[in-house]
Amino acid sequence: MCNLIFDIDGTLWNTTGIVASAWQEAADNYGKTKAVITADLLKKEFGKTMDVIAEDIFTDVPLLSERNILIDLCCKYEHIRLDEISRETADSIIYPDVKDTLKLLAQKHNLYIVSNCQLGYPELFTDKSGTADLIKDHLCFGQTRTCKGETIKTLMNKYDMDPEDTFYIGDTLGDYEASSQAGIKFIFCSYGFGSVATPYKSIAGFSDLKDIF
Prior knowledge:
213 residues; alpha/beta; six-stranded parallel beta sheet; 11 helices; 49% helix; globular
């Protein structure tokens, strides 16, 4: 039995279109930034911690306190928008074969989520995808306030995971670096948002995990 820890964005689903619209509305309503937020921009930022994303996007908001207010507002708008989407819409942004593959993997392995996202985001994914009963636990930046590598290690310590039997599945160089920091193997989702030169394994589609595990 293995421990499989999943990233969310670019790995399990792609919400960048919905989130970009929500964040733009939040930024416009806040009124102290001229940032233009697009799905392509978010694809370059997702995977970073929320404070770093705020610094990258809101370059015309110099005060940390104001950036914190703004990114919190963006996350609030995002949560509302995603919470309102139908299961049909959710199915359209979840990557092919994710739900069926998770169901199969959960029969033999322990499944977890670790993300650099805000509080409540992992639950949005599991609720909209109908996979809450398959994911044993999840941790995010909103809970730990640490980098992804440290958050992975916190989860591993909680469940006394053996690094030899633990894998992180993600789609960015940051995910790879976090896996290395945690001392576990990294499986790269090449269909996602980033690029990684030397992963342990690479998959072109989510269902390819069935051939590995």
